[in-house]
Structures are given as structure tokens and as C-alpha cells.
Design the sequence.
């Protein structure tokens, strides 16, 4: 573990954050006490590092029986978070990926927090490369993430990902070339966005700071997709 700490420090993490992140890559989903013990850090230091890593989009957590289970996000996100040090990231990411343990199926709900956390959600959509069905009345993606949104749209087009997007009348939409848009009543307004892709649901709240939750559950995804289809059939093709 120790030999990778300086590399992650060069990529912008502190020494403590690097230790905690690498420990989580090895352990998979874990409680803070276990992380603290394996990283040989005290609990306060570990909690502070976990909070910082969550803010950077490198760690997420789920709550089970009123206890937080932390897990590392896929190391590939380093490419997006640390563009200016891309060459250094390319050297370390393949090795870190070998340590990565994919979340077990029972951990089906994952919370993301802040702008970098939300970026992780959109990166997950790109990795799935499945059609995306969106119910989004306000279209705040470009407003809230003006630098990342064009990159996401470019990747969507590059990967030929089909999107069906339901919005309310009067909202400015920035669709990709692979996006079909339909409109519903201008009276329907919400800061929440529902995205359905594959067997996952992503519910994003454009609050300040923004939050998002990914629910990996095929039955729920299929149910919401059914409701989406009903809305789609009743929505209009032009404002």
C-alpha cells in the first residue's frame, strides 16, 4: 500500500486520504472502525479523510441498520477528477483497479454528495452504455455543471447512447444528437431528476450542494420505466 501513497499525493490527495482510499479499495464496503484499524489511523483522522474523499467523489456510503458503510468508487474516476495530471493517473489506475472490489449486490443504494459526487453518477451512466430515460422538469445540468455537461454530451454521442428526455414546456434544453425530447405541462416543476438506465435508477436533487442516489434494483427500474413510457406517450413532441 505504502508505495502508492506518494503517487496519489501527486494526484492531489493528502497522505491520510491516500491511505484511507487504498485501504477501502482493498476492503470493499466497510465501517469506519475497520477502515481506521486497517489504515492504522485514529478514528477522528479517518472520519475527516472519509469526508474529504466523499467531497472529491472518491468515496460513497450506504446506511444499513443506522450505520454507515463506506466504499471506494471505481479508480477510473481519477481520470475525470485529475485531468491536469492524466499521465500520472494512467500509471497508477490499472494497479489500483486490481485492488478494487466491486460492491456486493446487497449494497443496492449509494448516496453521492456535491458536484464531484454527482459527476460520478453521470460517469456511471456512461460506463453502463445503456439507453437513458430522464424525467427532468428544469434541465439544470448545464447551469449547475457548465464545464462537465458538454464533456458528458460529447461522450454520449461518441458512445451512441440513446436518451429520451421528458421536460416541461418553456425550459431550455441542451440535447445531444442522440436525444429525443418531449414536453409536459409547464406547471410541473421540481429540482429533482429521475434517470433510468439498465437496472439502475439515479435520483438527483439540484439543491445546494447537490445530492444524488443510485438504486440498483431491476424490479424498481422496470417499474419506473413503465411509468416513464406512459408519460412519454402523453407528452408532446414540440413546445
Sequence:
Amino acid at each position: 500500500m505504502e508505495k502508492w501513497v506518494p503517487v496519489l499525493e501527486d494526484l492531489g490527495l493528502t497522505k491520510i486520504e491516500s491511505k484511507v482510499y487504498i485501504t477501502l479499495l482493498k476492503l470493499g464496503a466497510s465501517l469506519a472502525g475497520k477502515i481506521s484499524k486497517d489504515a492504522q489511523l485514529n478514528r477522528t483522522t479517518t472520519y475527516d479523510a472519509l469526508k474529504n474523499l466523499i467531497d472529491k467523489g472518491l468515496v460513497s456510503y450506504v446506511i444499513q441498520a443506522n450505520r454507515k458503510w463506506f466504499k471506494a468508487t471505481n479508480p477510473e474516476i481519477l481520470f475525470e477528477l485529475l485531468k491536469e495530471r492524466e499521465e500520472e493517473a494512467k500509471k497508477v489506475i490499472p494497479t489500483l483497479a486490481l485492488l478494487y472490489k466491486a460492491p456486493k449486490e446487497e449494497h443496492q443504494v449509494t448516496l453521492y454528495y456535491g458536484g464531484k459526487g454527482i459527476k460520478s453518477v453521470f460517469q456511471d451512466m456512461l460506463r453502463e452504455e445503456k439507453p437513458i430515460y430522464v424525467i427532468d422538469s428544469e434541465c439544470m445540468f448545464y447551469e449547475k455543471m457548465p464545464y462537465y455537461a458538454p464533456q458528458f454530451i460529447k461522450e454520449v454521442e461518441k458512445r451512441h447512447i440513446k436518451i429520451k428526455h421528458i421536460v416541461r414546456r418553456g425550459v431550455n434544453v441542451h440535447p445531444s444528437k442522440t436525444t429525443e425530447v418531449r414536453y409536459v405541462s409547464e406547471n410541473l416543476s421540481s429540482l429533482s431528476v429521475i434517470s433510468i438506465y439498465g437496472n439502475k435508477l439515479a435520483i438527483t436533487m439540484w439543491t445546494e450542494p447537490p445530492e444524488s442516489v443510485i438504486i440498483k434494483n431491476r424490479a424498481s427500474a422496470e417499474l419506473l420505466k413503465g411509468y416513464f413510457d406512459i408519460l412519454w406517450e402523453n407528452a408532446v413532441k414540440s413546445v
About this structure: The first strand starts at residue 59 and ends at 64.
